[in-house]
Design brief:
30% helix; 5-stranded parallel sheet; alpha/beta; 7-stranded mixed sheet; 248 residues
């Protein structure tokens, strides 16, 4: 059985291969060739009075890929309000800034345990790759511009996934902390060799773009339907959309 750490995942798995693997797996769902169980979370009181301990698992298998995987995570959760009044969810394992997620991989052909994998990189790629799959099939073929709300890890992998399936040339990014959005613009511009510009409001990020993404840990809507324009493709991470987004 292999033990695969985060740097190895980052070195060996290109985003486009992550998207293609999910494409193959999702195609099996209607026929029963693939199966999945959505994440189940268990909560109990933690030592910190404003938080909870959470244990979460999710599972899936693909006959085409020949594997079964179970992902497990162990978190301490709390929900602070920052200096700007934004209410958000924060999590960590052991101490802020560190996390614990593991994936066990098995063969569906002979039952062999194949690997234990750190999911720090793979988890972001999985979620970002799913968003990229949506862009592949649901956004306009000539989509070239992105409005990104959020500047954390998911915002980085989402943009990487979009660029893997569309000819993305320009990006506008907003997040409440100016330094964070400016760092995102600098890093992603260099990584993807495209124009990434930090803007001062979420409305400015959404205006005039082809693809709109909300990638935040906000507990309240970060993207409002009133800002959207006809023909835009919309995707998010954790439901940080108001009701009008769905109406639109």
């Amino acid at each position: 059985m292999l033990f695969i750490d985060n740097p190895t995942v980052e070195r060996l798995l290109p985003m486009i291969e992550c998207i293609d693997a999910q494409d193959r797996a999702f195609r099996g769902l209607p026929t029963g060739e693939s199966i999945s169980r959505p994440r189940i979370d268990l909560y109990m009181p933690a030592e910190r009075p404003d938080g909870y301990y959470r244990w979460g698992t999710m599972e899936g298998a693909s006959h085409d890929l020949g594997v079964f995987a179970i992902r497990m995570k162990s978190d301490i959760l709390y929900w602070p309000q920052d200096a700007l009044g934004y209410w958000k969810e924060e999590k960590y394992s052991v101490e802020p800034g560190t996390y614990c997620g593991l994936i066990f991989l098995f063969s569906t052909r002979n039952g062999e345990p194949l690997a234990m994998i750190n999911d720090g990189i793979l988890q972001h790629m999985r979620v970002g790759g799913g968003a990229g799959l949506g862009v592949r099939y649901l956004s306009r073929l000539d989509s070239q511009t992105v409005g990104m709300i959020g500047s954390g890890g998911m915002a980085r992998t989402y943009l990487e996934a979009f660029a893997a399936v569309r000819d993305i040339r320009q990006v506008k990014v907003f997040s409440p902390t100016k330094a964070n959005r400016e760092l995102y613009a600098e890093e992603m511009s260099a990584k993807l060799e495209i124009e990434v510009k930090a803007v001062d409001t979420p409305e400015a990020a959404v205006e005039g773009v082809d693809i709109v993404a909300a990638c935040t840990n906000a507990m309240e809507p970060a993207l409002k339907g009133a800002w959207l324009e006809p023909g835009q493709h919309v995707t998010d991470v954790r439901g940080e959309l108001d009701a009008e987004v769905f109406d639109r």
